[in-house]
Amino acid sequence: MRLTKNTTLAVYLAAAAITGIVVNPVFAKEADPIGPKLTPRLKQMLAEEMLSVRQAAKQILDGLIVGDHSLVATQAQQIHDSFILQRALTAQDKKDLMKAASPEFLQLDGEFHMTAKKLSEAAQHKDYELQRFYYSRLVDSCQTCHSQFATDKFPAFSGAQPEGHSH
Ligand code: HEC
Predict the structure, then answer these.
(1) Taking a C-beta distance cutoff of 8 angstroms, is the pair 105, 151 a contact?
(2) 57-71, pLDDT tens digit by residue?
């Protein structure tokens, strides 16, 4: 089974979530780094994706603070589109990914890219209040995912408590 041009992995993952994987809404908070489980190829793709996501997130912040709606829209759309999973994933990659990634990871990833899409739309509508809202959600996604699935890469998150917990 190959991904065709119009079958984005986002769609594929959404279908996977609907058809088989029961996602527990209460995430287990234990760290479970995904990096070591990825094939070198997938790990490389993810790393490249993350670096471009970081670049885009910085540009979005630049756009937000000066009201440059079109910069925000373009960069947010880019985060949405440059989905690692949407790019040149072979059938084998897809299998490897499904083996390595937990439903929680896939859900976070899906939500992350959906938030980027909504941010882009808010910017197209020049709704700066909504842009702030979705930007903050976007940053939430970075932290939530890194603190659960990238503690090997970002050990500072280890043992850290998400907001709302005492101590
Ligand atoms: C769904 C999960 C997820 C989300 C959401 C996410 N990341 Fe990541 N990110 C990862 C994982 C996993 C790694 C570690 C990859 C590895 O093991 O090499 C990572 C690594 C990175 C790295 C280091 C890349 C490198 O190899 O040097 C950067 C920078 C980064 N993320 C930025 C971001 C930013 C900025 C956001 C939000 C705007 C974000 N990420 C959102 C999962 C995520």
Answers:
(1) no
(2) 999 999 999 999 999
